[in-house]
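Many introductory courses stop at the sequence. We go one step further.
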Amino acid sequence: MYRVCLDDSGRVDLPRRVAAALSSNDLAITSSSSQHVLLAVDGAGEACMTASLGSMGVADILSFFNMFRKTGILYLDLSDGNRQVFFQDGEIIFATSQRFEEDLGEVLCEMGKIERSVLTAIRADMEEGATLSQVLVRKNIVVARDLWLATRHQVEAIVYNLFSCRDGGCHFVAQELERDDIVRLSMSTQNLIMEGLRRVDERALYLRRFRSMDASLSYTGKSPANLSEEEKKLVSFVYSVPATVSQLVARSGLAEYDGLRVLYQLLEKGLVDVTQPKEVSLDSAFIELFEVYNGVLKLLYDCVSGNTPSFLEDVDRFLREVPHPMLYVVRGVALEKDGTLDGRNIVKNLVGLELLEQKKMIVEALNELVYMECTIARRALGAQGSAELIRRVQEITARAKRLVGEDTGV
């Protein structure tokens, strides 16, 4: 929980991401007592309920709106991106998400309805204000039925993934749903809740068997008889070369839960063996590079975190929301408690690339991270107070570029 203090002038220092989201809006106090104050964007509808996911479970929250047949939008502010769940008379009819994995285009790729290259080209040429579904239908790339099925699959995935969330906040705005940008699906909220809870339990079972998404699976040589098409596909990936659980889930084209389920079935049938990953050690080519950047990151953390208690939270959220190609470098990476990064997690993301290309991508990504942290430093310490710190940071990052060498082009 992020804690703030009210100063003598009645001001509070909000987390950077919260301040950024609210900075261009007028706020209204919609509810207050001696124990709380609730601010909402003026004109955005009155929040009739707010909750912390630490004190209430997702199942309880969804059940409440279903039981009292509420109509409106549930807004969820979660550590890995915001979600919106739309209710009509207590039933969920639509949902949206900021998570890349829950994007409609990603769902269509998983279902085999669109090629990745086509999706990338469409996204690059989309006009401002247009939605992906509108473009796909207008260009006859996806038929209406496939788009409807993908949208239903997307909404189900968004709701099911909520059940694994253990922190964050939400608020519900009661309002009539007259928006044209939502697809009104016929879904049973109670069925979604029961299935979501079942998936949480089963996913925990699968992970107890694999112990790690980095565990390696190899083919046992047993005859693959009476297998589903999904099982045959995943077995084919490990016939000759072992692969990690995370790699196989990604290659399967399935959602994470479904990929884990199929791999678990193969394990139960004796078609694959599990080998736990060995401790990864950094190649000497990377050690000095990460020492330099971690020196910068620790310096920034030490200087800024005292003035900005949400520093680690802000930076971790930045790492989850960056675009490609930086996301490719830092996916699954978070800051340590002292503000540094475990270089092994980054190098693991770049396996298969040439050494020079790995170094170049690391330098470009970490320079972006350092630049972002410097903007927090300027805000927290002021231009004058942060000037010497920024100068030292620039000197150290220049050293990192020299380490990589002139032929990297950075």
